[in-house]
Design brief:
Blueprint: H1 2-15, E1 24-30, E2 35-40, E3 44-49, E4 54-67, E5 70-77, E6 82-87, E7 95-100, E8 105-110, H2 117-121
Antiparallel strand pairs: 1-2, 1-8, 2-3, 3-4, 4-5, 5-6, 6-7, 7-8
Length: about 120
Amino acid sequence: MSIALLGVLTVILVGCSGSDTYRGSWKATDAKGEKFELFFNAKDFTVRNSSGKKEKFEYSQNSVQIENAVSTYGIQLADGRGYQINFPKSDDESMGLIKDENGTPLYVISRKAYLKYEDIFKLN
C-alpha cells in the first residue's frame, strides 16, 4: 500500500515540472519588436532583455492540451499569473507563442532566430 502511495505521489510531483518540449533556451520577440532570451528549467525560467537585465520566475506546469496535433502547455507562476506556451505548427516545436491567460500573444519564441508573429503564420 505504501509503495502505491509513493508511486502516485511521484507522478503528481513530476507532473508539475515543465515539459521537455519547452525546456531550454529560446529567442523571444515581443509585440513591440524588442528582443529577449528565455531559458526554461523544470521549475523556473529566466527572461533576459536586450540590455542584459535578468528576471527569474518560479512556475509549475498545470495543463497540457493537444488538439489536431497542436500542443499548448499551461504554466502558472508562483505569483498566480498564468500563461500558455503554444506550438501552433503541428510539425514544428522549434517555434511558438507565449500567451497570457486571455490568449493574447506576449512573445514569439524560436530556438534558432528572433521571429515576428507573421513569421509563424505566413503561408508557405
